[in-house]
Amino acid sequence: MDQWPSCLNEFEKLLFRLDSPRVAIDNVFCPNTTLVKVDSARKRGILLEAVQVFTDLNLSIKKAYISSDGRWFMDVFHVTDLNGNKLNDENVIRFMEQSLGSIHYLRSCSYEGVTGLELTGTDRVGLLSEVFAVLADFNCSVVDAKVWTHNGRIASLIYVKDCESGCQINDSHRIKRIESKLRPVLKGDNDIRSAKTTVSMAVTHTERRLHQMMFDDRDYERTPSTSSVKDAPEVLVQNWNERGYSVVNAQCKDRPKLLFDVVCTLTDMDYVVFHATVDTRGSRAYLEFYIKHSDGTPISSDAERQRVVQCLEAAIQRRASQGVRLELYAQDRQCLLADVTRTFRENGLNIERAEISTTGDMALNIFYVTDAEGYTPDSKTIDFVRDKIGSSHLTVKELPLTHPQEAKPNNPNNVRVGGAVLVSIGSLVMKNLYNLGLIRSYS
């Protein structure tokens, strides 16, 4: 680290150096990916922190080998950019190396000078339009926001400031009035769950917090709509009683941030990943995790096993992109989001996911929209909406090209999720080390 926290004395700095992860980045060993190795003393949650670094840099993990026993762990990742290329930007490589080397520090996700709002409720066409209209009425400017929807529920983190002063909103009475106006909007009709609006302390990584909000809202228990079951993930959980592990196998369509979503959910469900492999072949991803509870015990009942399956399926599907991706790049102004989302609502477009950000006086807003039934909207509707908002500002963007060469499935062991074979952990780890070129074959 270039700078030490002020709270550390010299002895603590020495201990930190001895205990810090060792990071090695290799751009030569593999022809198509950048190889990243992280060796470290074992610490609860450290795998999630490492994967979070790749997530924040928008990198794609093509393969991963994870092993931890005793007091040490070794993670190896094969990563690319979102276009499937090796990493060539020295600034990205340097930042990644520094971030991975300091993951023993708990990093918070803080937003200074803004007020954070956490919202959960019933999803419907036009909901965000009403939410942003309420905020506009209270003279709030949206600085940053992320919105997820899944199984009829919505979770959102919205960071706002006062339009006139440009400062954080500290008036507790005003905040309570905003919450009281948003709650009935989020509740919807015949909602068996009460809507929630709270002020965020912004100490948790934003996307991890969205997973937690969806999990607390029990979105995994709701029956998915017809449009949301395509490309559904396959998840299988079995116990390996001889070694005291529960083995999770998942197979699904590959996409960016997939490993983060799965590890995040396992961590928040109080499971520890001891060993894992991740492999992508063409457009498919195959993940295998050997887990235990934090107290060292495996999954103990069929009900718990089914809950893990449901929660992992939900975690994989929450971020799955559907519909059309629209990007709005325009000068920021009061009521911009309220006006744009109202146009979406008036033309029957539903926002499945949104990422709102502002830099200086410019706004970059990304929307994934479907029709009211959850399917890809008609191109004429998209064209009409673009013309009304401004076609030079609102553009249709293709999803990032994560699979430049569609490979044929290659599974020499012919192992499917539905019939997972539980092999020896020793064999698994030795095989991974051999694949990485870290040991020789003596057969």
Automatic annotation (TrEMBL):
<feature type="domain" description="ACT">
    <location>
        <begin position="247"/>
        <end position="322"/>
    </location>
</feature>
<dbReference type="InterPro" id="IPR045865">
    <property type="entry name" value="ACT-like_dom_sf"/>
</dbReference>
<feature type="domain" description="ACT">
    <location>
        <begin position="325"/>
        <end position="404"/>
    </location>
</feature>
<comment type="function">
    <text>Binds amino acids.</text>
</comment>
<dbReference type="InterPro" id="IPR040217">
    <property type="entry name" value="ACR1-12"/>
</dbReference>
<keyword id="KW-0677">Repeat</keyword>
<protein>
    <recommendedName>
        <fullName>ACT domain-containing protein ACR</fullName>
    </recommendedName>
</protein>
<dbReference type="Pfam" id="PF24931">
    <property type="entry name" value="ACT_ACR9_3rd"/>
</dbReference>
<feature type="domain" description="ACT">
    <location>
        <begin position="35"/>
        <end position="110"/>
    </location>
</feature>
<dbReference type="InterPro" id="IPR002912">
    <property type="entry name" value="ACT_dom"/>
</dbReference>
<dbReference type="GO" id="GO:0016597">
    <property type="term" value="F:amino acid binding"/>
</dbReference>
<feature type="domain" description="ACT">
    <location>
        <begin position="116"/>
        <end position="193"/>
    </location>
</feature>
<dbReference type="Pfam" id="PF01842">
    <property type="entry name" value="ACT"/>
</dbReference>
